[in-house]
């Protein structure tokens, strides 16, 4: 065993060698060093702002819906580890992947029935786009190779996903002129409960109709636009997209990486609209935050179309595709979620967020407070001072990760009422000081 390193030594090495997400190299701000995690708490290696543990208000980027160190998921991981941690998926298969695929088909909207297991959410979007492009090539319509989406979206940091993220002011603006040129509608009008705006619906229909000959697919985040701005829109626009895509021969893709597995109050956000896409992307909470895994589901029509082409296979195969360890934990996470009254827990969190975040609306500099399911957002009228907002949250004993003009929380579903109140207090403090 290597000699243990002190917290100071670890942070020095981190600064020298570790490139953190969305940060410079070397980093300008020291990250907090987590020693362990259990339930909804992150244990720090050394105290920060007088706190040696923090309530996690982020579910580790929205994935750890059951919290940390959960005995059911631990047991699933240990049991699978004793059998095999990995085996290649080309020419081989195994029970965890088969069982997981069947479970995903069972719980997602019909008629999604084929499952491609990918490494991460961004890769699942790459696979979805490849499915759509190859579908039309296989049907002899290679001109249908562009994508349509609405502004304010975020679909990942790899190539095709970047091309359908918001083109102006987003994280990927640097790549304009290099990425594939896609078609963008205006961002959907805000408000989950707002009646659909007919003028906006007409814009969607017109754009899809005008570009139908070159459109392979429409891809959107249903109901919640996540990292693009944490905004909510009416489910009615999903019905508009479904009808327009059907009318003009265009595939429809829902990116449910952030919204899947109950986060919005419906098991999948598509359920709010009662529509089914041709392709659906899942990730994040799929394994309960234990391991990286994602899935791209499609209808039999999409799969059959690809199979009729000159290249009758989907030429995509990640090395760790269908990883048995991740698949076993994912199935256990889904069963754990469905064995409980998850909808009531999400509703409880929604109620707590509405009550606890309401005072933030009175703070100077706050533009809007909004809540949907287990998502709470405070939007400022200025860019967040990340360092000040983070310090304020840590002083309250909570870990948050603000960005742009947003201070938000997506807590684990197991968060108790007292911890939820603490998270809300931390969001309010971060809004006041950030």
UniProtKB/TrEMBL annotation:
Chain segments annotated as transmembrane: none
InterPro entries named among the record's database cross-references: Aminotrans_3 (IPR005814), Aminotrans_3_PPA_site (IPR049704), BioA (IPR005815), PyrdxlP-dep_Trfase (IPR015424), PyrdxlP-dep_Trfase_major (IPR015421), PyrdxlP-dep_Trfase_small (IPR015422)
Binding-site residues for substrate, renumbered to this chain: 61, 154, 284, 317, 401
Broad enzyme group: transferase
Domain of life according to the entry: Bacteria
Pathway this chain belongs to: Cofactor biosynthesis; biotin biosynthesis; 7,8-diaminononanoate from 8-amino-7-oxononanoate (SAM route): step 1/1
Chemical reaction(s) catalysed: (8S)-8-amino-7-oxononanoate + S-adenosyl-L-methionine = S-adenosyl-4-methylsulfanyl-2-oxobutanoate + (7R,8S)-7,8-diammoniononanoate
Cofactor section: pyridoxal 5'-phosphate
Location, primary (coarse class): cytoplasm
Site (Participates in the substrate recognition with KAPA and in a stacking interaction with the adenine ring of SAM): 22
Pfam families registered for this protein in UniProt: Aminotran_3
Modified residues annotated as N6-(pyridoxal phosphate)lysine in this record: 284
UniProt subcellular location: Cytoplasm
Keyword terms of this UniProt record: Aminotransferase, Biotin biosynthesis, Cytoplasm, Pyridoxal phosphate, S-adenosyl-L-methionine, Transferase
Single annotated GO MF: transaminase activity
UniProt binding sites for pyridoxal 5'-phosphate: 121-122, 255, 318-319
Annotated EC: 2.6.1.62
Family the entry assigns: Belongs to the class-III pyridoxal-phosphate-dependent aminotransferase family. BioA subfamily.
Record's function text: Catalyzes the transfer of the alpha-amino group from S-adenosyl-L-methionine (SAM) to 7-keto-8-aminopelargonic acid (KAPA) to form 7,8-diaminopelargonic acid (DAPA). It is the only aminotransferase known to utilize SAM as an amino donor.
Subunit-structure text: Homodimer.
Record protein name field: Adenosylmethionine-8-amino-7-oxononanoate aminotransferase
Lineage: Bacteria, Bacillati, Actinomycetota, Actinomycetes, Kitasatosporales
